[in-house]
């Protein structure tokens, strides 16, 4: 894989630091496309009416109907352009419609799409080898492929169960944790609103205070099968655990014979400017889960087990998946990793992320900025974050509000400094509009 792509994206006010697709320049909303042959062409309001009558309401009402993307930009059904600062919640690592990734997916799909896990494929094997190399996994380490982050965490949950016994039944996670919405992953997730409708959940999970090393040491004992940690909690507002906490977790779990499982579903694959956010801690976990950015927008997840003892816990017949690790998904992931490695993406994440965080710190209404690379959370001095999401959309930006005073940014890793500045320039006006709307609603 040695392909290169265009030169710069629309909205740039200077040369790009690395190659991004030229096709970000095309406008097009409602134009005749291959997709419209199957779906038809409608306005955003028409699509939303059809949505409400045909899809379950588990996501509420969608904010917009998006029809096309290119680079860090997307367009809705009514032709409005947005700078995507959420990236499908940290999924679109290389932005939208990256030409190399899409060409690899199309080529693989035209060659071999699905074979089931009675068989394997070159892309599945090559991706497993690549992930083991990128994570510096020791000899005897292995990979299990799934379709999503929650499925990767389900596999890790079962791995923890295999490290259980009559006396070793406790699994520890943190307050504020989000590990997914399937039943095992949901048991690890701390948010009561997500958990309550589905209790009783799989047992044995204990949530301890976030970032409290002494609470961790007190909780981890010989009854502990595993500890699950996100190096940076995204759903809780982008809260980093820190190097010392991760090291303490490794020490405590090793002493107790428990597994240390790092959920890097959101933080992995270059999101923080490193392949894994936990790299700086200098530890070897027992397992890492990945997804989101791994496929560059194509659904793929992975559980990596480190070393032979952990890798042998799950044996033939004890876990499985129909679609996980299929040739198309693994080809998409290989193409994504190749592009990140060869197009200066990690360096861009570090430089643009630092620039964006510094700019946010200079905004009067911003009280705190957290995160690493291009996973950023910032707090406001009033409960206007949800209103800011709407005001940002009106201004042409996609952002996320995980809390009443918190905004989360997880843009494509190819975001440029010029695009970051475009948001920073607009942010005071967005804050002002959100505050005005909040005051109006309170009347």
Descriptive overview:
This protein has 2 domains: 175 residues, Aspartate Aminotransferase, domain 1, CATH 3.90.1150; 240 residues, Type I PLP-dependent aspartate aminotransferase-like (Major domain) (Aspartate Aminotransferase, domain 2, 3-Layer(aba) Sandwich), CATH 3.40.640. It is an alpha/beta fold and 443 residues long. 37% of the residues lie in helices and 17% in strands. A 7-stranded mixed β-sheet has the order 4-12-11-10-7-5-6, with helices on both faces. A 4-stranded mixed β-sheet has the order 1-2-3-15. It is built from 15 helices and 17 strands.
Overall CATH class of the largest domain: Alpha Beta
- Quick check: average pLDDT? 92
Largest sheet: 7 strands, mixed
Compute the CA-based radius of gyration.
22 Å
Strand order in the sheet with the most strands: 4-12-11-10-7-5-6
CATH fold type of the largest domain: Aspartate Aminotransferase, domain 2
How many DSSP-defined strands?
17
Overall, the morphology is globular
The span between the termini is 59 Å
Q: What is the total domain count?
A: 2
Low-pLDDT segments, ≥5 res: 1-32
How much beta, percentage-wise?
15-25%
CATH superfamily of the largest domain: Type I PLP-dependent aspartate aminotransferase-like (Major domain)
Helical fraction equals 25-40%
CATH architecture of the largest domain: 3-Layer(aba) Sandwich
Counting helices, strands and paired strands, the structural category is alpha/beta
Total helices: the number is: 15
